[in-house]
Amino acid sequence: ADAPVSPPAEAAELRARLRAGRHTVLVLSGKGGVGKSTFSATLAHGLAADEDKQVALLDIDICGPSIPKMMGLEGEQVHQSGSGWSPVYVEENLGVMSVGFLLSSPDDAVIWRGPKKNGLIKQFLRDVDWGEIDYLIVDTPPGTSDEHLSIVQYLSATHIDGAVIVTTPQEISLQDVRKEINFCHKVKLPIIGVVENMSGFVCPKCKKESQIFPPTTGGAEKMCQNLNVSLLGKVPLDPQIGKSCDRGQSFLSEAPESPATLSYRNIIQRIQEYCEQRHSREEKSI
């Protein structure tokens, strides 16, 4: 299917709304359940740890919006003002928008066809008043479908730094990530890199490491070498990650000494460096 084409006036409207955004990062995954929304939430918390940075987290997983729960914002409502929809704020410098805020109950099913999903994504980009932001993080549903085509098409009117692709080590997950990489190449979406999630588990008692998801084909590392994309890092399993998400807390601040936190911080730093380098290259070319 072709992506929806924005008329020039609409593209100008999107540009006007998003011109204040300096960096835009899409978080993608080939399949569900690999920890993509967990990564998006943790990335947003990690970037917002710098109080001088304004961070926006946009959840375009229309049918499975888990960001409100993960950010501790369940039950919050979106408010409208003269300048558009106001995001829901976790911190002064961390705003969130999700279809979850528009549902009367978190158990409501969103049973929509593609055009209605596309319409809401466009509305999120055009009508949400983020203000001046340094980072826009977009949490997407799994796969390469309507929502992905829409967000890439609409954001092409402005600027996308690139995509972070989340996988787990086993071949069945990597198989779908290869499709995701292929999708990025086809729509000319730069790939910042791949994150291997659930990468081993160290028993807190005996300290022995187990591979819960064995990397039978060499895991993300080998796939990245073969496909010439960056491996941003490996995040080990830590039960505290799931607990923090369920409680709507930041795992990074709840478990500062965890090896997973160290891994996350290194990955977040690499994403920041990539965005800054890309920004300075583009400024030089203007």
TrEMBL record:
Chief site of localization:
cytoplasm
Q: Which UniProt keywords apply?
A: 4Fe-4S, ATP-binding, Cytoplasm, Iron, Iron-sulfur, Metal-binding, Nucleotide-binding
Is the keyword Protease in the record? no
> Which compartments is it annotated to reside in?
Cytoplasm; Nucleus
- A Pfam family reported for this protein in Swiss-Prot or TrEMBL: ParA
An annotated GO BP: iron-sulfur cluster assembly
Q: Which GO terms describe its cellular component?
A: cytosol; nucleus
Q: What does this protein do?
A: Component of the cytosolic iron-sulfur (Fe/S) protein assembly (CIA) machinery. Required for maturation of extramitochondrial Fe-S proteins. The NUBP1-NUBP2 heterotetramer forms a Fe-S scaffold complex, mediating the de novo assembly of an Fe-S cluster and its transfer to target apoproteins. Implicated in the regulation of centrosome duplication. Negatively regulates cilium formation and structure.
Keyword 4Fe-4S belongs to the record: yes
Q: Which InterPro entries match?
A: Mrp-like_CS, Mrp/NBP35_ATP-bd, NUBP1/Nbp35, P-loop_NTPase, YlxH/NBP35
Molecular function terms, GO-annotated: 4 iron, 4 sulfur cluster binding; ATP binding; ATP-dependent FeS chaperone activity; metal ion binding
This chain's protein is named NUBP1 factor
CDD domains, per the entry:
Mrp_NBP35
Q: What is the lineage of its organism?
A: Eukaryota, Metazoa, Chordata, Craniata, Vertebrata
Could you name the domain of life of the organism this protein comes from? Answer: Eukaryota
